[in-house]
């Protein structure tokens, strides 16, 4: 059953950046770029790399965007589940904040003192030799702003309140109609 073996390998390694793939940061602040991975059969000599402005995984490598070259900002390796990741190479403004000996295989990084030029696409790429070099990636988009703007949801809350109220009134009207029809029917049956 070679086909089943291939399917098992394809679903064994997963990489995720969480519930949302967008992050907003203030200029000159630090920002967390989350990434976790999971594997069904464990890992050994796993390699992970963070790229800035790279495109999708093609074959065994990441290909560059036509407008810019991919920038490797962090490169690490993990010997086994019992050991923490060790640094192979990194950008000086990037700090590793994950851990792989706990519950989750966290390979998140913090980008220090973000600038407007740091806005873009960040790709967390993971390769597991134990799974016949299965490799996957997840992407997160960073937006850098001068100041955070608080959104005013007043109009949305008013609309939701009005619609909810109308639906409630409609249900109440239907219930009253049913009760009135039930009473009329019972009175006519009694005569």
Automatic annotation (TrEMBL):
Keyword Membrane listed: yes
GO cellular component: voltage-gated sodium channel complex
Cited Pfam families: V-set
Subcellular location field: Membrane
Transmembrane segments: 155-176
GO molecular function: sodium channel regulator activity; transmembrane transporter binding
One Gene Ontology biological process: monoatomic ion transmembrane transport
Ig-like domain mapped to chain residues: 2-141
Xref: InterPro entries: Ig-like_dom (IPR007110), Ig-like_dom_sf (IPR036179), Ig-like_fold (IPR013783), Ig_sub (IPR003599), Ig_V-set (IPR013106), Myelin_P0-rel (IPR000920)
Keyword annotations of the record: Disulfide bond, Glycoprotein, Immunoglobulin domain, Ion channel, Ion transport, Membrane, Signal, Transmembrane, Transmembrane helix, Transport
Name of the protein in its database record: Sodium channel subunit beta-4
Species, as recorded: Apaloderma vittatum
